[in-house]
Amino acid sequence: MKKGQVSWITGASSGIGEAVAQLLAAEQHKLILSARRRDELERVKSLCIQAGAKAEDVYVLVLDMTGFDAMEQKVQEAHGQFGRIDFLFNNAGISQRSLCVDSELHTYRKLFEVDVFGQIALTKLVLPVMLEQGSGHLSVTASVAGKIGVPYRTGYCAAKHAMMGFFDALRAEVARENIYVSTVTPGFIRTNISNKALNGDGSEFGKMDQDIQTGMDVHRAARKIVKGWKKGKAEIPVGKGVEMHALWIKRFFPKLLQKIVARKAAPV
Q1: Which family does the similarity line name (predicted)?
Q2: CB within 8 Å of 19: residues ≥ 6 apart
Protein backbone atom coordinates (compact mmCIF):
# COMPACT_ATOMS: atom_id res chain seq x y z
CA MET A 1 0.00 0.00 0.00
CA LYS A 2 1.26 3.44 -0.91
CA LYS A 3 0.36 6.97 0.08
CA GLY A 4 -1.88 8.73 -2.38
CA GLN A 5 -3.41 5.60 -3.87
CA VAL A 6 -7.14 5.28 -4.51
CA SER A 7 -8.73 2.97 -1.94
CA TRP A 8 -12.35 1.82 -2.02
CA ILE A 9 -13.86 0.55 1.24
CA THR A 10 -17.25 -1.13 1.45
CA GLY A 11 -18.97 -1.44 4.80
CA ALA A 12 -17.32 1.90 5.56
CA SER A 13 -20.13 3.31 7.70
CA SER A 14 -19.10 1.55 10.92
CA GLY A 15 -16.79 -0.93 12.59
CA ILE A 16 -13.64 -2.11 10.86
CA GLY A 17 -14.40 -0.21 7.66
CA GLU A 18 -14.78 3.09 9.50
CA ALA A 19 -11.58 2.57 11.50
CA VAL A 20 -9.55 1.55 8.44
CA ALA A 21 -10.83 4.57 6.50
CA GLN A 22 -9.47 6.93 9.15
CA LEU A 23 -6.06 5.26 9.08
CA LEU A 24 -5.82 5.47 5.31
CA ALA A 25 -7.01 9.08 5.40
CA ALA A 26 -4.09 9.91 7.68
CA GLU A 27 -1.80 8.48 5.00
CA GLN A 28 -3.32 10.69 2.29
CA HIS A 29 -5.13 7.95 0.40
CA LYS A 30 -7.89 9.05 -1.92
CA LEU A 31 -10.92 7.31 -0.46
CA ILE A 32 -14.18 5.96 -1.81
CA LEU A 33 -16.52 5.15 1.08
CA SER A 34 -19.44 2.82 0.45
CA ALA A 35 -22.34 1.45 2.46
CA ARG A 36 -26.13 1.78 2.33
CA ARG A 37 -26.51 4.75 4.72
CA ARG A 38 -25.42 8.06 3.25
CA ASP A 39 -25.73 9.94 6.55
CA GLU A 40 -23.32 7.53 8.26
CA LEU A 41 -20.91 7.70 5.32
CA GLU A 42 -20.92 11.50 5.55
CA ARG A 43 -20.10 11.19 9.24
CA VAL A 44 -17.15 8.91 8.43
CA LYS A 45 -16.05 11.32 5.71
CA SER A 46 -15.87 14.07 8.33
CA LEU A 47 -13.71 11.84 10.52
CA CYS A 48 -11.43 11.14 7.58
CA ILE A 49 -11.00 14.85 6.95
CA GLN A 50 -10.16 15.33 10.63
CA ALA A 51 -7.60 12.54 10.26
CA GLY A 52 -5.82 14.43 7.49
CA ALA A 53 -7.60 13.78 4.19
CA LYS A 54 -8.63 16.60 1.87
CA ALA A 55 -12.38 16.94 1.43
CA GLU A 56 -12.07 16.48 -2.34
CA ASP A 57 -10.16 13.24 -1.78
CA VAL A 58 -13.00 11.49 0.08
CA TYR A 59 -15.92 10.39 -2.08
CA VAL A 60 -19.15 9.01 -0.67
CA LEU A 61 -20.70 6.34 -2.89
CA VAL A 62 -23.88 4.72 -1.57
CA LEU A 63 -23.86 1.03 -2.42
CA ASP A 64 -26.17 -1.88 -1.64
CA MET A 65 -24.23 -5.14 -1.95
CA THR A 66 -27.40 -6.87 -3.17
CA GLY A 67 -28.08 -4.24 -5.83
CA PHE A 68 -26.47 -6.27 -8.60
CA ASP A 69 -28.21 -4.48 -11.46
CA ALA A 70 -26.74 -1.14 -10.38
CA MET A 71 -23.30 -2.41 -9.44
CA GLU A 72 -21.61 -1.94 -12.83
CA GLN A 73 -22.70 1.70 -12.87
CA LYS A 74 -21.38 2.11 -9.32
CA VAL A 75 -17.97 0.77 -10.35
CA GLN A 76 -17.90 3.15 -13.31
CA GLU A 77 -18.74 6.03 -10.96
CA ALA A 78 -16.01 5.00 -8.50
CA HIS A 79 -13.44 4.65 -11.28
CA GLY A 80 -14.45 7.93 -12.86
CA GLN A 81 -14.05 9.86 -9.62
CA PHE A 82 -10.25 9.50 -9.41
CA GLY A 83 -9.41 7.74 -12.68
CA ARG A 84 -8.25 4.48 -11.09
CA ILE A 85 -8.90 2.01 -8.30
CA ASP A 86 -5.74 0.79 -6.57
CA PHE A 87 -7.25 -1.02 -3.62
CA LEU A 88 -10.63 -2.60 -2.90
CA PHE A 89 -11.50 -3.65 0.64
CA ASN A 90 -14.59 -5.88 0.53
CA ASN A 91 -15.67 -5.29 4.10
CA ALA A 92 -19.48 -5.23 3.91
CA GLY A 93 -21.29 -8.13 5.53
CA ILE A 94 -23.81 -9.44 8.03
CA SER A 95 -23.71 -12.21 10.61
CA GLN A 96 -26.19 -14.72 12.05
CA ARG A 97 -27.35 -15.94 15.48
CA SER A 98 -29.71 -18.91 15.09
CA LEU A 99 -29.77 -22.69 15.10
CA CYS A 100 -29.94 -24.39 11.72
CA VAL A 101 -33.28 -25.97 12.59
CA ASP A 102 -34.72 -22.52 13.33
CA SER A 103 -33.24 -20.75 10.30
CA GLU A 104 -35.41 -20.16 7.27
CA LEU A 105 -34.00 -20.63 3.80
CA HIS A 106 -34.52 -16.99 2.88
CA THR A 107 -32.25 -16.04 5.81
CA TYR A 108 -29.48 -18.21 4.38
CA ARG A 109 -30.07 -16.66 0.98
CA LYS A 110 -29.74 -13.16 2.39
CA LEU A 111 -26.46 -14.07 4.11
CA PHE A 112 -25.06 -15.38 0.85
CA GLU A 113 -26.37 -12.49 -1.23
CA VAL A 114 -24.55 -9.98 0.97
CA ASP A 115 -21.53 -11.90 2.25
CA VAL A 116 -20.70 -13.93 -0.86
CA PHE A 117 -22.35 -12.90 -4.12
CA GLY A 118 -22.11 -9.18 -3.37
CA GLN A 119 -18.37 -9.46 -2.75
CA ILE A 120 -17.83 -11.63 -5.83
CA ALA A 121 -19.89 -9.33 -8.06
CA LEU A 122 -18.01 -6.21 -7.00
CA THR A 123 -14.61 -7.91 -7.21
CA LYS A 124 -15.35 -9.21 -10.72
CA LEU A 125 -16.19 -5.70 -11.88
CA VAL A 126 -13.15 -4.05 -10.27
CA LEU A 127 -10.67 -6.74 -11.37
CA PRO A 128 -10.64 -5.67 -15.07
CA VAL A 129 -9.82 -2.12 -13.96
CA MET A 130 -6.80 -3.38 -12.05
CA LEU A 131 -5.72 -5.65 -14.90
CA GLU A 132 -5.85 -2.68 -17.26
CA GLN A 133 -3.81 -0.60 -14.80
CA GLY A 134 -1.30 -3.41 -14.40
CA SER A 135 -1.58 -3.28 -10.60
CA GLY A 136 -3.98 -3.50 -7.70
CA HIS A 137 -4.83 -5.00 -4.35
CA LEU A 138 -8.03 -6.87 -3.49
CA SER A 139 -8.90 -7.71 0.11
CA VAL A 140 -11.90 -9.17 1.93
CA THR A 141 -13.01 -9.38 5.53
CA ALA A 142 -13.42 -13.10 6.08
CA SER A 143 -13.47 -14.42 9.66
CA VAL A 144 -12.18 -17.09 12.00
CA ALA A 145 -15.66 -18.46 11.20
CA GLY A 146 -14.36 -18.91 7.66
CA LYS A 147 -12.10 -21.65 8.97
CA ILE A 148 -14.00 -23.05 11.95
CA GLY A 149 -17.66 -23.96 12.20
CA VAL A 150 -19.44 -22.92 15.39
CA PRO A 151 -23.03 -23.24 16.67
CA TYR A 152 -25.62 -20.59 15.81
CA ARG A 153 -23.64 -19.43 12.77
CA THR A 154 -24.19 -22.14 10.14
CA GLY A 155 -25.01 -19.64 7.40
CA TYR A 156 -22.35 -17.14 8.42
CA CYS A 157 -19.66 -19.83 8.64
CA ALA A 158 -20.69 -21.20 5.25
CA ALA A 159 -20.51 -17.74 3.69
CA LYS A 160 -17.11 -16.95 5.18
CA HIS A 161 -15.73 -20.37 4.19
CA ALA A 162 -16.87 -19.54 0.65
CA MET A 163 -15.07 -16.22 0.74
CA MET A 164 -11.85 -17.79 1.95
CA GLY A 165 -12.00 -20.26 -0.93
CA PHE A 166 -12.88 -17.68 -3.57
CA PHE A 167 -10.13 -15.23 -2.66
CA ASP A 168 -7.51 -17.96 -2.16
CA ALA A 169 -8.28 -19.21 -5.68
CA LEU A 170 -8.30 -15.67 -7.09
CA ARG A 171 -4.89 -15.04 -5.52
CA ALA A 172 -3.47 -17.92 -7.53
CA GLU A 173 -5.12 -16.70 -10.73
CA VAL A 174 -3.69 -13.17 -10.60
CA ALA A 175 -0.31 -13.97 -9.02
CA ARG A 176 1.52 -12.99 -12.22
CA GLU A 177 -0.55 -9.86 -12.87
CA ASN A 178 0.93 -7.62 -10.14
CA ILE A 179 -2.34 -7.85 -8.24
CA TYR A 180 -2.28 -8.78 -4.56
CA VAL A 181 -5.10 -10.63 -2.85
CA SER A 182 -5.42 -10.78 0.93
CA THR A 183 -7.97 -12.19 3.36
CA VAL A 184 -8.53 -10.52 6.72
CA THR A 185 -9.47 -13.10 9.36
CA PRO A 186 -10.89 -11.35 12.44
CA GLY A 187 -11.86 -13.00 15.67
CA PHE A 188 -14.01 -11.05 18.12
CA ILE A 189 -13.70 -7.32 17.41
CA ARG A 190 -15.75 -4.68 19.27
CA THR A 191 -18.18 -3.61 16.55
CA ASN A 192 -21.96 -3.70 16.15
CA ILE A 193 -21.86 -6.88 14.06
CA SER A 194 -23.88 -8.94 16.54
CA ASN A 195 -26.52 -6.22 16.90
CA LYS A 196 -27.11 -6.36 13.14
CA ALA A 197 -26.87 -10.16 12.92
CA LEU A 198 -29.86 -12.12 11.61
CA ASN A 199 -32.16 -14.31 13.62
CA GLY A 200 -33.51 -17.43 11.96
CA ASP A 201 -36.49 -15.54 10.53
CA GLY A 202 -34.28 -12.80 9.10
CA SER A 203 -35.00 -10.20 11.80
CA GLU A 204 -32.17 -8.41 13.60
CA PHE A 205 -30.61 -10.15 16.61
CA GLY A 206 -30.37 -6.72 18.27
CA LYS A 207 -27.97 -7.61 21.09
CA MET A 208 -24.26 -7.35 21.78
CA ASP A 209 -22.55 -10.71 22.23
CA GLN A 210 -20.39 -10.97 25.33
CA ASP A 211 -17.57 -12.26 23.14
CA ILE A 212 -17.86 -9.19 20.91
CA GLN A 213 -18.17 -6.80 23.85
CA THR A 214 -14.88 -8.05 25.32
CA GLY A 215 -13.15 -8.37 21.96
CA MET A 216 -10.30 -6.39 20.47
CA ASP A 217 -10.72 -2.63 20.14
CA VAL A 218 -11.68 -1.89 16.54
CA HIS A 219 -9.00 0.78 16.07
CA ARG A 220 -6.30 -1.60 17.29
CA ALA A 221 -7.66 -4.20 14.89
CA ALA A 222 -7.57 -1.70 12.01
CA ARG A 223 -3.92 -0.92 12.72
CA LYS A 224 -3.04 -4.62 12.57
CA ILE A 225 -4.96 -5.01 9.32
CA VAL A 226 -3.27 -2.08 7.62
CA LYS A 227 0.11 -3.30 8.86
CA GLY A 228 -0.62 -6.70 7.32
CA TRP A 229 -1.53 -5.13 3.97
CA LYS A 230 1.70 -3.15 3.94
CA LYS A 231 3.69 -6.32 4.58
CA GLY A 232 1.94 -8.02 1.69
CA LYS A 233 0.48 -10.79 3.84
CA ALA A 234 -1.88 -13.16 2.08
CA GLU A 235 -3.85 -13.78 5.27
CA ILE A 236 -4.15 -11.39 8.19
CA PRO A 237 -5.49 -12.89 11.44
CA VAL A 238 -6.58 -10.23 13.92
CA GLY A 239 -7.98 -10.66 17.42
CA LYS A 240 -6.90 -11.17 21.01
CA GLY A 241 -9.16 -13.88 22.44
CA VAL A 242 -9.07 -17.64 22.71
CA GLU A 243 -10.79 -17.86 19.32
CA MET A 244 -7.46 -17.03 17.69
CA HIS A 245 -5.91 -20.14 19.23
CA ALA A 246 -8.58 -22.19 17.48
CA LEU A 247 -6.80 -21.63 14.16
CA TRP A 248 -3.77 -23.70 15.20
CA ILE A 249 -5.76 -26.10 17.40
CA LYS A 250 -7.78 -27.11 14.34
CA ARG A 251 -4.59 -27.79 12.42
CA PHE A 252 -2.88 -29.92 15.03
CA PHE A 253 -5.71 -31.16 17.29
CA PRO A 254 -8.92 -31.22 15.21
CA LYS A 255 -10.82 -33.59 17.51
CA LEU A 256 -10.09 -31.38 20.50
CA LEU A 257 -11.46 -28.36 18.66
CA GLN A 258 -14.62 -30.27 17.76
CA LYS A 259 -15.25 -30.93 21.45
CA ILE A 260 -14.60 -27.29 22.37
CA VAL A 261 -17.01 -25.79 19.85
CA ALA A 262 -19.68 -28.42 20.58
CA ARG A 263 -19.81 -27.21 24.17
CA LYS A 264 -20.81 -23.72 23.04
CA ALA A 265 -24.52 -24.15 23.63
CA ALA A 266 -25.80 -20.62 22.97
CA PRO A 267 -24.68 -17.28 21.52
CA VAL A 268 -23.55 -15.03 24.39
Answers
A1: Belongs to the short-chain dehydrogenases/reductases (SDR) family.
A2: 218, 219, 221, 222
